[in-house]
Design a protein that fits this description.
It is built from 9 helices and 14 strands. With 282 residues, it is α/β, with parallel strands linked by helices. It has one domain: Ribonuclease Z/Hydroxyacylglutathione hydrolase-like (Metallo-beta-lactamase, Chain A, 4-Layer Sandwich), CATH 3.60.15.10. Helix 7 packs antiparallel against helix 8.
Length: 282
Amino acid sequence: MSTHEKTLAGVDSVETEAGPLSIAGHTAELDTVTTGVHGLRTVMVNLYAVAEENGRWVLIDTGLPGTREKILHWVGRIHGGSRPAAILLTHGHFDHIGAVADLAREWSVPVYVHTLELPFVTGQREYPPPDPSVGGGVMSLLSPFFPRKPIDLRDNVTALPADGSVPGLPSWRWIHTPGHTDGHVSFFRDGDRTLIAGDAVTTTKQESFLAILRQAAEMHGPPAYFTSNWAAAKASVRSLAVLQPRFIAAGHGKPIQGEAAMLGLAELAAHFDELAVPKHHR
């Protein structure tokens, strides 16, 4: 059994070439992931408020529809009355853009996405239909009922800078991580190797309702039912593993830190076809 498979079995420690690796001690709190990074779960999906040392901050993703008040209360507790410099979207799926229109109006701030994601947030295209046959679990079966029509943010949204810089966060860079969607991006801070992965990887089995309730820290691929290009998803995970992140904050699941983050992502990258790609998919 591989290191990754033992981790998924829910044990407290696993044997690696470097010796036993504790899993239980490598889960970070969602609210305070690491320096300058705070997270909030809205039912089944996470969003992040990320600040620089000067206090300037941005919001990454905006949760499920109907979460505007919850998000405003949360960021008010963390950042007082200040508004973010921008809203950044890892991608445009419904569970990551639920409150974006309301918050962009509330704060009068720009929204940034990858250029390939623009059609889905400017009313031009809807996402491909999900595949309910993959991944197993209730969430996969329910996926045909998830919203996938485009929203229209054309008065607020613009493409991320082509040079990889992140508006409002000079110590971070964005990385194109397609596969889950064509324009999916992740965000990385080289100083302490913190990765905000969006849905490029997850740290819970997102296809399973029971796994979402348990929130056990496990390394998984992107949510299978909405992933449109598995070859690209594999390449993206491998590109992230090269970074050897010490903090991984995903769109779904608890943050993972330290050796568990690096080794778990390396294992997923090395055995992606076996561990993440459904045997039968569209």
